[in-house]
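INTERNAL AUDIT FORM
Audit reference: QA-55
Scope: verify that the stored structure record matches its stored sequence.
Auditor: D.O.
Record contents follow.
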Amino acid sequence: MPWYHFLVIFAVALVVAMATTPLAKRIALRVNAVDYPSARRINKVPMPRMGGLAIFLGLIAALIVQYCGTIAFGWPSAFISHPSMHINYWGLAVSVLVIFLTGLIDDVKSLKPGQKLVGQILAGCIAAGSGLLIGNIVNPLGGTEVLSLGWLAYPITVIYLVAFANIINLIDGLDGLAAGISGIVSLSLFGITLMSGRIDAAALAIATSGSCLGFLRYNFHPAKIFMGDSGALMLGFVLGIVSLLGVTRTAALTTLLVPLIIAGVPIIDTLAAIVRRLRGHVPIDQADKGHIQHRLIKEGFDQRQAALLIYGWSALLSLGAFVITQVQVGPRIAIFLLLLVVSFFFVRRLHLFEPVLRHYYDPKTHQDEILPADDPVFAQGCEDSRESATNSDPDLDADASSSSDPDSGPSPRQQTP
């Protein structure tokens, strides 16, 4: 294998993404694909949000070079699947195009959540129909027993890919954050898939890493452009594809867990958002400012420092996941527990599971309201929740939000049961 093979792919993706980002910015401004400042956004000035176009072009250029290199210079083909899998790569390309277009339309037209979900599910179905499936799972307790998913492999794969797309999208709330994390995750997956001889997964991973780094030139604080859903949804979806290309049709549970550990930071952030919103009695899809980046900013870090801290956390998980693939069962468990403890420390320190929004009913107006943490009534809601939990179980003392004000007076509004 030529030593420069993957380096060339990486460089092409980087250069093309970097060169086309200014073009993406001009197009975004022309079609008014712009993020305007609001209560839930960190940016203080209007910001074009179609950077995903540059990332997409970087990926396309890199894969075209890969194909031409295979024909002209005998590079190892990235379009031959593992013998245990039968992948239609044209179908995979269409699925990526569908998820990209879904995000692109949302950047311009601001689709409703349900409409975006339809596009994501369609992309996932096309990928699963192209042969990219979570197949059979080897018994994690040992032996040769295999758990066959059968027809369930199709919906499980679609859910997996849609989930991957959204975890990157949800963490895209800080200059350079989604691009940096995606770059770290894709580079880690490149190393693991290359060592296992999965050329298709490795080529896509290194191209993704190059595109992210090229775009980061304009996206790191102070950002000149955001990637938007066209970039965030596509990157998450592509990372999901890479993680599945990197395993055989019958895979050990550890092999399936490694990509989840590598992508641990956005996964934890997504899980925390779901729990946080359930505790606040607000819809799960209700946006809030309780994500990791928001908590770090509240702790006093600036955008650069917050992004670098999250990069470090992600790199630590990636390194741990790589080591897990190289050691026996005992050390694997020890490393996994260590990563779990470190992540728990971050989660607890940043209060990621504590609500920043609460759902209330105003008896005067007979309307439901969503209250932020800085509303005086929010504190009373936290206190009411704590008292309710304590009364129902004397040994249970629910945590109030760190944003609560214990001196707040009684509320004229009542929390919705």
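Auditor finding: record pair retrieved intact. The two ends are 63 Å apart (CA to CA).
Action required: none
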